Amino acid sequence: MLPKEWATVKKINFEHFSFLERLNTSPDARPTVKYIDNLEHFFRYRETHDFTHIALEQKTNMLGEVTVKYFEGIQYGLPMCVSGGIFGGARLLTKNRSEFLHKNLPWVVEQAKTARFFMAFDWENHFESQLSDVQKELNVVPLI
């Protein structure tokens, strides 16, 4: 159990812990990332993917995953991210597809183009930072 004072502030370490707890997982228990042969790149992508959800305040449901994949596809140019966004978007329910096309997509394109490069961000040195401060440093604005 986390100390009560952690729950009252939106620090990155608390947000990451809560993110993993909601998924009932840990970084080591998740499925293996495919198509990344370099172990250092593999761990960096996995870590950055989780923190992208946190920084963009996107859930791990289908709509949130597609939104994050579009962000990653635009920022990183990785084929797995681009194809994940496109094919994942095709699987969205009609209501979610409409929300994605009219709200999330324009927002995430702008965020990906104007934000700092997430893969180069030193997440590990910001664990004690407030989420809002990290968002400012990354130049991202949460979706309203």
Automatic annotation (TrEMBL):
Q: InterPro entries, alphabetically? A: Coq4
Gene Ontology BP, a term:
ubiquinone biosynthetic process
Q: Which UniProt keywords apply?
A: Ubiquinone biosynthesis
One Pfam family here: Coq4
Annotated membrane-spanning segments are none
- Please give an example of a GO cellular component term from this record: mitochondrion
Record-given protein name: Coenzyme Q biosynthesis protein 4 homolog
- Which species? Caenorhabditis nigoni
